[in-house]
């Protein structure tokens, strides 16, 4: 009886690990799907406003910039409850999620 109990516990834990942020979790897939959509939304924002948004929130709420014709995208918070990050580095747009650890600029970040 004891072995069956341990197998049940192990199986239960194996099923829970992806939901808790394990590799290839549903949250990671959602963030990987969202990042390119946010890039496209930021490009539309730039076409209308002449500049990239300063933060992801600017895609969903009018930041008071001339030409804003949004909302461009409504999902500005990643699956872990942290706002997506938008930054222009060397004239290139970078969009990322902080990933399961909820800390920006760590190994598990998900970006374009």
From TrEMBL:
What InterPro entries would the database entry show? Answer: Pilin-like, T2SS_protein-GspG_C
Q: Which domain of life is it from?
A: Bacteria
Among Gene3D superfamilies, the record links this protein to:
Glycoprotein, Type 4 Pilin
The chain positions of domain Type II secretion system protein GspG C-terminal read 23-110
Could you tell me what this protein is called? Type II secretion system protein GspG C-terminal domain-containing protein
